[in-house]
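Retry 2 of 3 after timeout on previous attempt. Resubmitting structure tokens to design endpoint.
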């Protein structure tokens, strides 16, 4: 399990696993600590089993209100850091 401490969001951290399937890194078991519980559970379910590069492509740059980041953007940042 990897843990990423978020910045600029209501969530405080993101926990996730990375598995390799047929030579492709995929996202597993995403969970957020803090933030909008239902929405963040939904994001975790939507990205489950998705290739890391695809999650980054889809979520990077997403903003929340007037903030320059969001929980999905922070997930993309976390995945880019591995």
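Retry 2 succeeded. Sequence:
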């Amino acid at each position: 399990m990897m843990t990423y401490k978020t910045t600029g969001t209501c969530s405080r951290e993101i926990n996730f696993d990375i598995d390799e399937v047929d030579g492709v890194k995929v996202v597993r078991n995403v969970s957020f600590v803090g933030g909008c519980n239902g929405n963040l559970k939904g994001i975790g379910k939507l990205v489950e089993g998705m290739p890391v590069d695809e999650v980054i492509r889809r979520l990077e740059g997403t903003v929340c209100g007037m903030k320059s980041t969001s929980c999905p953007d922070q997930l993309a940042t976390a995945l880019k850091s591995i």
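Attempt log closed. The two ends are 12 Å apart (CA to CA).
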